[in-house]
Amino acid sequence: MPVRKFRSIEEAKARRRWLDTGDPAIARKMRYLWQMASAFGPLCIPRGVRKYRSIEESNADRDQWETERIHLWRQMREKLQ
Prior knowledge:
single chain; mainly alpha; 0% strand
């Protein structure tokens, strides 16, 4: 998520991307986000607390489940195309 800096409140309000209450685009955007989220499934971040003997062991474990998740996402994306 990018960080944006503004010089004043007025400048921030002018760039706001919120939709007004009752805007029909809200439902459309929510449907799109739910479809995208359901296509990729749950986050698959390991639950619980894990103990490691070293930072290298911790990094290796994280790299393994991240790699598995990326592989799963790529498979899902190929199916959607």
